[in-house]
Amino acid sequence: MTPSAHSVVTEAMSEYAGVRTRELSVAGAGPTIVLLHGYCDSADTWREVLIRLAAAGRRALAVDLPGFGLAQPRRPGPLSPQFDAFADALVAAHGPVVLAGNSLGAATALRAAARDRDGRVAALATLDEPILARHWLARLTRRRDYTGLFDLLGRLPVPDRVVHAVVALGVSKLIYGPGFRADPAFVATAVRSIPTMAAAAERARDAVRYARENPYTHGPLAVSCPTLIVHGAHDRVIPVAASRALHALLPGSELVVLPRAGHCPQLDQPDEVTRLLLDLTARAIDRPERAG
Question: ∠ CA 41-109-86 to the nearest 5 degrees?
Answer without folding.
Answer: 75
